[in-house]
Amino acid sequence: GQNIDQPTEMTATEGAIVQINCTYQTSGFNGLFWYQQHAGEAPTFLSYNVLDGLEEKGRFSSFLSRSKGYSYLLLKELQMKDSASYLCAVMDSNYQLIWGAGTKLIIKP
Amino acid sequence: EADIYQTPRYLVIGTGKKITLECSQTMGHDKMYWYQQDPGMELHLIHYSYGVNSTEKGDLSSESTVSRIRTEHFPLTLESARPSHTSQYLCASSDPRDTGELFFGEGSRLTVL
CB A33 to CB B101 under 8 A? Predict the structure, then answer.
């Protein structure tokens, strides 16, 4: 079956750096997405990786290793507003999105 | 800026009622989706559409139905609501010619008493 694994919850301190990992096993691969979802709101797009390597976008970076079935989202200079759930999703060979359960990130002052 | 709208945002109804959740997008996207999500839980795909007159069932067994008569409109209907239908319903759209990034509406939170 298809599976996406990410930690359920993480805690970090304001101003610090945090890395949220995602491992996947899917039938085919057509890209990996990271979304941010604040409590009670809809997910918003953060990043897309289809080739191996690091994609940087401001304070957020996303890394992909297709051979390892692994990705991470790196958040730098954490702010209180970064407290949210971070969802990893993989597009399989049928161009269907397989979603992880999300990682709840708690930022402490 | 994403232009996808859902109504109602919040709805409380009694068991057995028929309801329709509306979703419209102005981006001309062919692909549209309905997801169900309980608080703190993962997204479950219940229906999707590749374009006009196309509807498909998702992974989650659902007693709802959808229609796609126009590109911009993808309503979800529950013929007879039950308390187990209490959840958040998220509509999304994507352009298959692009990366496949989903644009989400703000969601419809349904409570069935």
Answer: yes
